[in-house]
Design the sequence.
């Protein structure tokens, strides 16, 4: 659980420049996932999917931090009620 929390907090601690370089290193033509662009011809990092990837990486921790306490507050009442259906 602590490793997951650390992974969620990672975008808060990392510079956006480092994130951009890492995304290019992973999704660029010579990167780990470069086969998508090389073999399939799909433009990932320098197109709309790259914008979506970067936005998800930056905004997902904010969403998780806002939703997590609300989900804990709800409790198991609905879960128990749904089990009886």
Sequence:
């Amino acid at each position: 659980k602590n490793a997951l929390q650390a992974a969620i907090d990672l975008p808060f601690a990392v510079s956006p420049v480092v994130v951009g370089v890492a995304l290019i290193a992973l999704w660029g033509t010579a990167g780990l996932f470069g086969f998508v662009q090389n073999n399939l011809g799909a433009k990932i990092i320098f197109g709309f999917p790259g914008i979506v990837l970067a936005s998800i990486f930056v905004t997902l921790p904010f969403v998780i931090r806002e939703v997590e306490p609300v989900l804990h507050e709800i409790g198991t009442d609905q879960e128990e009620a749904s089990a009886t259906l």
